[in-house]
Amino acid sequence: MSFFSPYPGRAMFVAFVVLLLSLPAPSAGDQLLCAGANGKYSPNSTYLTSLRSLADELTARAMNSHSATGTAGTGSNDKVYGAVLCRGDSTGADCSGRLREAFGRTIDADSTGAAACALHKDVALYSELYQLRFSDEDFLSASSNAPEWVDGTNLNLVPAADARQFDELVAKLTRSLAEAAAAQPDRYATADVPWSSRESERTVYGLAQCMQDMPPERCRACLNGVGAEIRRRIGSSKMGGAIHGARCTLRYETGTQFFTEAATGQRKGHALLIIATVYSLSVVCTRLLFCVLYIIRRRKRGKQFNKFHALMMIVATNSLPSDLISCNN
């Protein structure tokens, strides 16, 4: 019996697929950051005891509010500060489950010394759906959003001729999101805006979120600070990106709705209020202008036309009369 396949190309393809399926699953995009200057703790220290206690407390509280901050320990050597955040469209059970698993991986790995940030006192873990940070320094009372993770989620470029318009649209979107998130009790907002390029028409989606315990002005300042850095840190005309920080996070994507609509409809409306209002006013003004021009045209031809009736019909029905639309003489 021959061991050579009569279809070598097909055999190689099958072998390649089998190899891919046998490889471990790729990372979900988690980013682990640790500050070496803060030092390390020992596996059996009181700092680790405080850290475990704080992790349990924050995970339980985040189930109801999607974010939580707190401290544990009393002495200078065992006090730990912590913060957790889940994306606003996640469920409570999903949020607590992800955080519990993340804390478990981080703390257990630290105890065995097997992780990149093993036994570090200051650690931040960022993901698309959740994040956590703990430290022996009080970062909760500071205004800094450090450490930040810049994630270029879609590095494709818009056409060069449309780059300036696209960057301006993203800047306006992020400013609207900052205002909307700061005004919400849970400090979370999403939005989308249409964008037309020379090649196609797409939608740009955005999301902004702060820790829920942040006052509105601090949340707004944090998000505006992040938004002002998007073009420089992610890059001009890039179609998607995110900046995750210890206190707030901001993300936009072109053509991909990455958040759940059902949980964010009301917040989305707040974020787009200014854009929708400007658009509506422009439509109304355009219709009134056409109406006035039509009246002038009719008067010049000596025909009777009830201006008051026409204007009232436009205002009441938000549409033009059929004869006005067709411009019949």
Describe this structure as you would to a colleague.
The protein has 329 residues and is α+β, with helices and mostly antiparallel strands. The protein folds into 3 domains: 28-135, Gnk2 domain, C-X8-C-X2-C motif (Killer Toxin P4, Chain A); 149-271, Gnk2 domain, C-X8-C-X2-C motif (Killer Toxin P4, Chain A); 281-326. Helices cover 45% and strands 21% of the residues. It has 9 helices and 10 strands. β4 and β5 form a beta hairpin. It is elongated.
Order of helices and strands: HEHEEHEEEHEEHEEHHHH
CATH class of the largest domain: Alpha Beta
How many structural units, i.e. domains? 3
Output the CATH homologous superfamily of the largest domain. Gnk2 domain, C-X8-C-X2-C motif
Shape type: elongated
Unreliable sequence segments:
1-28, 263-267, 269-286, 322-329
**Structural class by secondary-structure content:** alpha+beta
Q: Strands of the largest sheet, in order across it?
A: 1-4-5-3-2
- N-C termini distance: 90 Å
Helix content: 40-55%
Profile the largest sheet: 5 strands, antiparallel
Write down the CATH topology of the largest domain.
Killer Toxin P4, Chain A
Q: How many DSSP E strands?
A: 10
Count of discrete alpha- or pi-helical segments spanning 4 or more residues: 9
Q: What is shown here, in short?
A:
This protein is an alpha+beta fold. Helix content is 45%, strand content 21%. It holds the Pfam family Stress-antifung.
